[in-house]
Structure formats: structure tokens, C-alpha cells
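@channel anyone free to eyeball this complex?
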Amino acid sequence: MNVVVCVKQIPDPAEPGKLEADNTLDRSGKLILDESDSYGVEMALQLVDKAGGGEVTLVSMAPGNETSGLRTALAMGAAKAILVSDDALSGAGALDTAKVLAAAIKRAEPDLVLAATESSDGYTGTVPEQVAALLGLPSITFAKEVELADGKVKVQRQTEAGFDEVEAPLPALVSVTAGVVEPRYPSFKGIMAAKSKPVDQLGLGDLGIDASAVGSAGAGQEIVTVEDAPAREAGEIIEDDGESFGRIVAYLENLKVI
Amino acid sequence: MAINRIWVLAEALDGTVAPITLELLAKARELGGTVEAVYGGEGADVAEAVGAHGATTVYATGDLSGSLPGVPVASAIAEAIESGNGPDLLLFGTTYDGRDIAARLSVAIDKPVITNNTDLAVEGDDVVVTEPVFGGTKLVKTRFTAGAPYIALFRPKSFVAESTGAGAAEVASLQVPDAGQAKVLNRHIEESSGPKLDEAEVVVSGGRGLGDAEKYRMIEDLAKALKAAPGASRAIVDAGWVPYSYQVGQTGKVVKPTVYIAAGISGATQHLVGMKGSKNIIAINKDAEAPIFSVADLGIVGDVHKVLPKLLEALQSR
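replying in thread with the prediction:
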């Protein structure tokens, strides 16, 4: 059972977001493994384990040949990584990102591809499904539970009303929600081993993708302006002296909520 | 004019058309041109509602027979576009199925897709969408540069639904070239009493400041006392205290109630994006520096374990 996990290396969410002069996200600082992807990596490791063998390969698109987030996932137990890095990818949107990831994933020939439902810096939420379309794979998104049996993947898929039981034949792509599994903390042994696990670094040329088809040149979208959103007026802040509940009751009465 | 024909993705649950569909139809009408709906299912099920909100025709695939909608609905729309019978602009909700269908369509017709938008404008020949970023503190305007058809997805409650009183839309069939291979075997509807989270007038939400899963009971009790919907921050959903359907935030539900009470929630931007639009916000948190206080109309710096029980008692004894 060979599983590919798409992982994103993003600016640390603890730092305030910054923009470059061309309004693209500033990715020059520290990049870490997107927390959403720790669930995909863990899920992959558990499925390979249950299947009795195989390996987990990470696929990531990142600027500047960034590998720090990959090392975190390798330390969890992934076997190797494929990293695509190319200056022409700056300004990429969801579709061209999916084209790059799909081309890289093809090289790994997986039985199953896992991804988070969306990244924690972009939130578009379409890339996994676009990757599946480009690879010609069936896909199930928003999985809160995943099982493999009889050449199929069986999933509990989150819906507005609850969940659906969905299945698809392998090979397939599944995007997983946060909380689908409890991600493991890498052990010291894992962290040391990660340093020497292979990371295949590729550019667009290696994937046969034309620079004009991706990034600012080919994304098909361009930022016009970035403005401040209208701010909400500050309200009244008080310290609780044991009676503040009364203030809340009065406030609700005033609004005729009670 | 760049846009002559707009398709709005209709979504429905158990025969009721989703509010986001009606909101998008209102926006589509404002943009002008022909407004139609596209639906993965039996057109007759949604024809009245979409008609009353401005769609003249609903293009329907017919019963999907348990297929996940992404592949079949996208292939049907792509086929219509390729045969010259498609729209210039597609408006979908940023929903589970909306994203899947938009993603598959984006690949089929090789056009970009932009999600999480709160507005769209046609300026001359340009179609420009507006998306809040950085926790909603900045608005990014993006122009589509690859030409029509344009695929744009919107957050719930970006627009206000408005009935025109018109009659049912005409139903037209779409061919479905590809049914896809993902099949729904069973649907589980989570029973929930009380108002729906994204439609409630009052929402009471809890976060990590509650301490542990059992303490969420205070939120449930308060919600009952106020006839409100209970909500949650992502932190306690990830921790497994409450189901994902309770989650308010960028990756949860967007709510705009008359009153939003945030108890033990720090106000990470992820969460603020989901509730900043509330008309009145009450926050209780023991940390005076918590970002939630920057959006609160009434902020109480205090211990939720002290404030909530007293509040509940006061409400229950009325």
C-alpha cells in the first residue's frame, strides 16, 4: 500500500501575515508543516501499517527549496519526499498548484493520495479535488473516518447535515478533516532519521510544465488591490466583580432577546 | 458586457433549497443578464424556490443515484459549456459540494476557481472578486485574467436573499457524461433540536477556556435558556469535545446572529472570521489581552466558571 500525502509548508500562523510588494503572500520567513497536513500524514502512516506494508511519500510545492516542514513529516515516519520548487510558481493559484502537484504525484504511482481539505494559509479548498481530476482518480473530500478494504476506500464524509458513508475504488484521492486521527509526535529517533531520508527536488522543467502555464504568468488571476477591511467599533470592556452576569442580562433585555 | 448569462449552483437538503443558493440568486439578478440555476438532482425539486428568487430556468442532471456530485455535475456543466450552451459566469457557495463541483469543472474547462469571496463586480470587461484575508482584516480584490467562463465561490451570508414572487423556473435537462466512481451508500442526518447554528438569532459559543469537555454543558444549558444555538471554536472541535457541525470560523460555519456570546474563546482570527458579522457580541474571557475583546460590544474579563453559572441561574429564574 503506497500512499502519497500532499503537504504544504506555510508561514508560521503565529506570526502576523505579510504581503510582498506584488501582493503575493510573503513566504520568505520561517515555513512550517501546515497543521492540517499532520492529520493526512498520520492517517497515511496508520493505513500503511494496517495494510501490512508499503510506504508514505510526501509531495510538496514550496518556494526556495524549503524542506523544514517536510522534515517534520519525515520525522513522523514518512519514507521520502518529492519537493517542487521554482521561481516561476510565485503567484500560483489553486488550479496551477494542482497541475504541479499532480505531475509530481504521477511519478510516485500511489494506491491512495491523501490531503487536508484546505490549507491554513489559502483556504481555497479545491486543490485536492483538482489534483484528483488531473490524475483521473475518484475522490472523496471531507473524510472524518477512512478505511481501506477490498480494493476500495470507505469514508465517512462530513456533510451540512451530519455525514454520509461513501466509497470509491482504489486508486483514489481522499481529503481528511482535522481530528480524523490523533497525529503522533515525532520521536527523537524519528527526527534523527528524517535528516537522511531522501527529498527529490524538482523544478518545472523536470515535470515538463511550461513556466508560462503557472504562477503569475499562467494562474489566470491577478490581485488588483488589497485594502483594510472596515473595522468594528470597540465596545465596553469590564472586569468581573462577581456581578457582571447582571450586565449581560441587562444587555440582552435591552436587545429584546429575553 | 462581459457577462450575459449566469448560472447559480442550486443546493438542497431534503427538498429545501439552501439559503446560500437564494443569496447567490439575489446577487446574480443584481449583475443583470440571464439568471439560471444548475442542479445535481431532479429539477422539479428546486424549480419553485429558485424561480421565486429570479432563476428563469433550472438545468438539472436528474437523480444522481447516489453518486457524489463533484464529477457528474461538473461533467454536465462542462459539456454544456463545450457545446456552446453554457454560462459566462458561475456562482457557487463555498460549500462541501460547491467546492468539489467547482474544482472538477475548473480542470475540465481549464479555468481558475476563486473561493471564499464576499462580493463580485463586473467592471467593464473585468470580473473582480473580493475576498477577506488575514482574519478578515484585509480585503483582496482579484481579477480573472483567463477569460470566460468565470468560476467564483462565495461565503454564506455575503448577500441577502430576496424573493421576486416569480413563478417556478422552467426545468431543462443536462447530459451527464461521467457519473464518477464515488458512491454514497448511506446518509446519516445528525438529529439536532433547537435552531440551526447558521440561522439562529442567538448563538452561544464555547472555547478552550471552558477547561474540559464536561464544562461545555454550561454552553448547552445557556443556549437552551436563550433558545439559542450552541457553537464552538475550532480548538475544542479538534479536541473532540463537540462535533464539527458546532464549529464557527473560517473552516466552520459563518454566523451573523443578533447576539453572539463567546465564552472562553480567545478570538483567533480563524474564529473571528466566522462571527465578526454578528450584530452584537458579548465575550467572557479571563485574559484581558484576548483578541476576542477587539470585536466585543460587551466584554467581561472574568472566569467563565464563575460568570456562566450565575448568568444561567439569573436566566432560569426569570
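from a first look: Chain A touches chain B through 75 residues (CB under 8 Å).
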